[in-house]
C-alpha cells in the first residue's frame, strides 16, 4: 500500500510516468547482438534464441492488419463502422475509431452506411488530450481521387463522373469530381465545338484527365476524349441500322455540304448533292445554323471518322461492298482517267471506285500523254475493301 501511495497523484490517479521512470526495465540495456527493424525496439532476452524469437514476433506484426501508429494529415483506407445522426465512425485498423462530423463533409459523403469503404484524412492531433481522434472523409477522398487522376494522365484510359459547376468566359468550365475542381477547356467539352456553351452547365458528364496545369494549379480534363472512346462501338452499331432515319444536330456548314453530329459521338457530312430540296434552298441562303436539328440517313461508312450522310430516299448501293468478289486479283479492266497529277493518274474503275496509277508504272515522259476522260486498260493488283483502296498498273 505504501508503494501505491508513493505513485498516487493528488487527484487520486496512479502516476504511471513517475513509476515508469524508475522501473528497472528502463535502466536495463538491450541485447546488442539482436538486430531490430525499429530503433525504438529493445530486446532484453540474452538467450541464444533471442534473435529468432524477435524475428517471429516481427513476422506476426507484419501479417497483422492492425495499424500501430497514425499521423496527423495522413490518409488511410477504412470502412464506416457506425452512423448516428451527424456523427460517423470509421475503422481504419487502429486501436481507436476515427470520428467524423458528417455535417462538415461534402454532400456526396453525408449519406453513408456501415460497411461503406472510404478514405479518411486525420484532422486532429493524434496525441491530444481528447477522448477521440477526428478525421475527414471528404479530404481523404479528394486526395485519393487526385492521386488516381494524376496517375491516369499518361494512359488516358480511365474516365470519372464530374459535375459541370461553372462556365469561365472564353476559357472553359470548372468540373467538380469528388470535391476536386478541374478545368475543362471549351474545345474539349464535346466531340465537336458546342453551339451553346451553357448547355452543359450543372450536368453530369464523363471526363478523362489529360494534363496538369501548373499555371491554374489544377487537373485538365476532357469530355471529348471520353466520347472518342465510344466511336468504334457506335460505328459497329451504325452498320446494323444503316439506311434508317437518324436525327442529329448541325455543327457547321461549308460550300460543299453540312456537318452533323449524331448518336452522341459520331460526326458526318451531307454533301450538297445529297440535301433535300428544302435544306438545299436554306443552305444556299446560309440559313442553316449550328444547333439546328436535322434528319438524314447514313449513306456510307468510310472509316470511324469519315461518315457520309444523305437526305435523299434512294441511297445508291455501296460499290465497295463485296468488291473482292466482283473483281479477282490480278484482273485487267476497262477504266477512265479522272484526273492527272505529277505523281500519277487517278483512274475510275466504276462509279465510286477510284484507284491511283502511280507515275512509276507509267514513266515520267509517258504520263504527259494522258488526259482526263481518256479510256484506258489497267490491271488491278490489290484491293483493300476496308480502306477503300485499289492498286493499279498498266498491262504488260
Q: What does the secondary structure layout of this molecule look like, with pairings?
A:
Elements: H1 2-6, H2 16-21, H3 24-27, H4 50-63, E1 75-84, E2 87-91, E3 98-101, E4 117-122, E5 133-136, H5 137-151, E6 160-168, E7 172-177, E8 180-185, E9 204-213, E10 218-222, H6 223-240, E11 245-254, E12 257-262, E13 266-271, H7 277-284, E14 293-303, E15 306-310, H8 323-326, E16 331-341, E17 344-350, E18 353-358, E19 375-384, E20 389-393
CATH architectural arrangement of the largest domain: Beta Barrel
Mean pLDDT across every amino acid position: 85
Number of helices: 8
Strand content: 35-45%
Main β sheet profile: 5 strands, mixed, barrel
Q: What is the CATH superfamily label of the largest domain? A: Nucleic acid-binding proteins
- Total of domains: 5
Poorly predicted runs of 5 or more residues: none
State the strand order across the main sheet: 1-2-3-5-4
Q: Which radius of gyration do the C-alpha atoms yield?
A: 37 Å
Oligomer: single chain
Secondary structure class reads alpha+beta
What overall geometry do the principal axes of the alpha carbons give? elongated
Please write the string of helix (H) and strand (E) elements.
HHHHEEEEEHEEEEEHEEEHEEHEEEEE
What is the straight-line distance between the termini? 120 Å
CATH topology of the largest domain: OB fold (Dihydrolipoamide Acetyltransferase, E2P)
DSSP strand tally: 20
Classify the helix fraction into a percent range: 10-25%
What CATH first level of the largest domain would be assigned?
A: Mainly Beta
Amino acid at each position: 500500500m505504501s508503494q501505491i501511495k508513493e505513485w498516487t497523484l493528488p487527484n487520486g490517479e496512479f502516476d504511471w510516468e513517475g513509476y515508469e521512470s524508475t522501473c528497472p526495465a528502463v535502466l536495463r540495456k538491450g541485447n546488442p547482438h539482436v538486430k531490430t527493424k525499429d530503433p525504438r525496439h529493445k530486446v532484453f532476452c540474452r538467450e541464444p534464441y533471442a534473435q529468432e524469437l524477435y524475428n517471429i514476433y516481427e513476422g506476426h506484426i507484419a501479417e497483422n492488419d492492425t495499424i500501430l501508429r497514425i499521423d496527423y494529415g495522413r490518409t488511410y483506407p477504412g470502412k464506416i463502422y457506425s452512423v448516428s445522426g451527424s456523427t460517423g465512425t470509421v475503422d481504419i485498423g487502429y486501436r481507436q475509431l476515427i470520428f467524423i462530423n458528417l455535417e462538415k463533409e461534402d454532400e456526396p459523403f453525408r449519406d453513408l452506411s456501415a460497411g461503406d469503404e472510404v478514405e479518411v484524412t486525420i484532422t486532429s492531433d493524434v496525441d491530444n488530450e481528447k477522448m477521440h481522434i477526428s478525421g475527414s472523409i471528404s479530404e481523404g477522398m479528394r486526395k485519393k481521387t487526385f492521386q488516381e487522376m494524376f496517375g491516369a494522365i499518361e494512359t488516358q484510359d480511365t474516365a470519372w463522373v464530374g459535375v459541370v459547376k461553372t462556365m469561365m468566359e472564353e476559357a472553359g468550365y470548372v468540373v467538380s469530381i469528388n470535391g476536386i475542381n478541374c478545368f475543362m477547356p471549351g474545345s474539349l467539352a464535346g466531340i465537336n465545338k458546342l453551339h451553346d456553351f451553357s448547355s452543359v452547365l450543372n450536368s453530369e458528364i464523363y471526363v478523362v484527365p489529360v494534363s496538369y496545369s501548373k499555371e491554374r494549379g489544377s487537373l485538365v480534363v476532357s469530355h471529348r476524349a471520353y466520347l472518342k472512346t465510344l466511336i468504334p462501338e457506335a460505328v459497329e452499331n451504325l452498320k446494323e441500322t444503316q439506311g434508317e432515319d437518324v436525327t442529329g444536330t448541325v455543327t457547321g456548314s461549308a460550300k460543299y455540304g453540312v456537318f452533323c453530329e449524331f448518336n452522341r459521338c459520331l460526326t458526318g457530312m451531307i454533301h450538297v448533292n445529297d440535301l433535300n430540296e428544302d435544306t438545299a434552298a436554306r443552305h444556299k441562303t446560309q440559313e442553316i445554323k449550328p444547333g439546328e436539328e436535322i434528319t438524314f440517313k447514313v449513306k456510307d461508312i468510310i472509316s470511324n471518322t469519315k461518315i457520309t450522310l444523305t437526305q435523299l430516299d434512294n441511297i445508291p448501293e455501296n460499290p465497295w461492298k463485296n468488291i473482292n468478289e466482283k473483281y479477282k486479283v490480278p484482273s485487267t479492266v476497262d477504266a477512265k482517267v479522272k484526273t492527272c497529277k505529277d505523281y500519277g493518274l487517278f483512274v475510275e474503275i466504276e462509279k465510286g471506285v477510284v484507284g491511283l496509277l502511280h507515275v512509276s508504272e507509267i514513266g515520267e515522259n509517258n504520263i504527259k500523254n494522258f488526259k482526263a476522260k481518256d479510256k484506258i486498260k489497267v490491271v488491278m493488283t490489290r484491293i483493300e475493301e476496308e480502306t477503300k483502296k485499289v492498286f493499279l498498273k498498266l498491262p504488260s
